[in-house]
């Protein structure tokens, strides 16, 4: 028997046998042979019952050992919950809870693996185009007979592609830090007017090039609790999207307000609008809608979405083809 390999079990049976034998001898000496025989039979039955229950517990423990081996092999489908009372039942329920935790962690790891694979594939695709373009232009620049005008044009194009790669890598690193929860967003009272001014400052040149008008409306006392720099990054990406899809001479309106529940920032443009088919996906990474420009990589709005969501915020978009787009951002004062 497997349980006899256990030194404690052997010692228990030995001691119980000695006590029973001694009690039988004393009963025969002080009372009678009938009393001694009765005591011996009773002691033997008790020993057999002890052996039976001990054997049963060992079978249960062996089942648990097999279950744990299956868990180590990645099988989390078994259910050993036990609603009866007792130490083994408590142990079974605790093991089941640990199994659920391991199953969830395994699922998260698998999802992370899929996301990582997709991200690497998307990054490779996004980098391939500008790198290929730069290789071609570099080959052309190696021609000593190349026209000076063309040489200047190709050099400028290479610089543009390098800036595009730099922005892409920088944005991806920011997204990766947010996903890994490395970024510690500040929770400070920030005037919305100051936030808007900081964001607008970064897009004044492209707005001027396209001769876009800008109107800012809002309560100067309005504030929100969050991180000024990261939120400005989110607004800059949204404004860049508005500028990209608004024709020359168009306009952008930024309005904001604060109430007891949240602080709201609204960004409207008079651009081309977003189709209904594209609306559900515009915040997904590397998604490019039908009206996206050739230089668009589909990561700016995804970054904005992550930044806002990680600051108790929410963002939604409303748009119609030919009638412009509205981005509505809300920063809640508490979790709802």
UniProtKB/TrEMBL annotation:
<keyword id="KW-1133">Transmembrane helix</keyword>
<keyword id="KW-0418">Kinase</keyword>
<dbReference type="InterPro" id="IPR003661">
    <property type="entry name" value="HisK_dim/P_dom"/>
</dbReference>
<dbReference type="Pfam" id="PF00512">
    <property type="entry name" value="HisKA"/>
</dbReference>
<dbReference type="Pfam" id="PF02518">
    <property type="entry name" value="HATPase_c"/>
</dbReference>
<keyword id="KW-0472">Membrane</keyword>
<dbReference type="InterPro" id="IPR036890">
    <property type="entry name" value="HATPase_C_sf"/>
</dbReference>
<keyword id="KW-0067">ATP-binding</keyword>
<feature type="transmembrane region" description="Helical">
    <location>
        <begin position="37"/>
        <end position="54"/>
    </location>
</feature>
<feature type="domain" description="Histidine kinase">
    <location>
        <begin position="122"/>
        <end position="335"/>
    </location>
</feature>
<dbReference type="InterPro" id="IPR050351">
    <property type="entry name" value="BphY/WalK/GraS-like"/>
</dbReference>
<dbReference type="GO" id="GO:0005524">
    <property type="term" value="F:ATP binding"/>
</dbReference>
<dbReference type="InterPro" id="IPR003594">
    <property type="entry name" value="HATPase_dom"/>
</dbReference>
<keyword id="KW-0597">Phosphoprotein</keyword>
<keyword id="KW-0547">Nucleotide-binding</keyword>
<dbReference type="InterPro" id="IPR036097">
    <property type="entry name" value="HisK_dim/P_sf"/>
</dbReference>
<dbReference type="GO" id="GO:0000155">
    <property type="term" value="F:phosphorelay sensor kinase activity"/>
</dbReference>
<dbReference type="InterPro" id="IPR005467">
    <property type="entry name" value="His_kinase_dom"/>
</dbReference>
<dbReference type="GO" id="GO:0005886">
    <property type="term" value="C:plasma membrane"/>
</dbReference>
<dbReference type="InterPro" id="IPR004358">
    <property type="entry name" value="Sig_transdc_His_kin-like_C"/>
</dbReference>
<dbReference type="GO" id="GO:0004721">
    <property type="term" value="F:phosphoprotein phosphatase activity"/>
</dbReference>
<keyword id="KW-0808">Transferase</keyword>
<feature type="transmembrane region" description="Helical">
    <location>
        <begin position="12"/>
        <end position="31"/>
    </location>
</feature>
<keyword id="KW-0902">Two-component regulatory system</keyword>
<dbReference type="GO" id="GO:0016036">
    <property type="term" value="P:cellular response to phosphate starvation"/>
</dbReference>
<protein>
    <recommendedName>
        <fullName>histidine kinase</fullName>
        <ecNumber>2.7.13.3</ecNumber>
    </recommendedName>
</protein>
<keyword id="KW-0812">Transmembrane</keyword>
